[in-house]
Design goal:
By secondary structure, the protein is α/β, with parallel strands linked by helices. It has a single domain, classed as Transcription Regulator spoIIAA, CATH 3.30.750.24. It has helices at residues 22-39, 57-72, 99-106, 117-124; strands at 2-8, 11-19, 43-52, 84-89, 111-114. A 5-stranded mixed beta sheet has the order 1-2-3-4-5, sandwiched between helices. The longest helix is centred in the N-terminal third of the chain and has 18 residues, at 22-39. The termini are far apart. The relative contact order is 0.18.
Length: 126
């Protein structure tokens, strides 16, 4: 997987592409968290529309747990309030059951998954 991060005012944009790999996705999110600590955005867009491959339910759940734990660490690192996170994925990759999203939300993360970039930006209020 490839990833890049840029900041535009109060918006942090993380772009991800390539064949999904859970460990690589987790490492990419660690880099997002480090950028949040430095730049203090209020909203985060993870643009993963170019991520491909099959993602099984357990990987989705584990990723949701992981990102929520990482996000919950932000206040202790001086990031208040916690940013809102929107994920945008391709229609053939997003989980209709939203297992990862549900796992993250149930653990205190402000996040939603979308297939439409404009809907995600609207939800982020950008």
């Amino acid at each position: 997987m490839e990833d890049s991060i840029r900041v535009d005012g109060t918006l942090l944009i993380a772009e991800q592409a390539g064949l999904f790999d859970l460990a690589e996705a987790m490492n990419a999110f660690r880099r997002v968290v480090e950028s949040i600590v430095v730049h203090r955005p209020t909203v985060v867009l993870v643009d993963a529309r170019r991520v491909t491959g099959y993602i099984d339910t357990l990987d989705r759940f584990q990723y949701g747990e992981f990102i929520a734990a990482q996000a919950r660490s932000l206040p202790a690192r001086g990031v208040l309030p916690m940013p809102r996170f929107a994920y945008v994925l391709a229609a053939d990759v997003i989980d209709p059951q939203r297992v990862g999203e549900t796992a993250a939300v149930n653990r205190g993360m402000l996040t939603r998954a979308f297939t439409d970039l404009d809907e995600a930006l609207n939800w982020l209020r950008v």
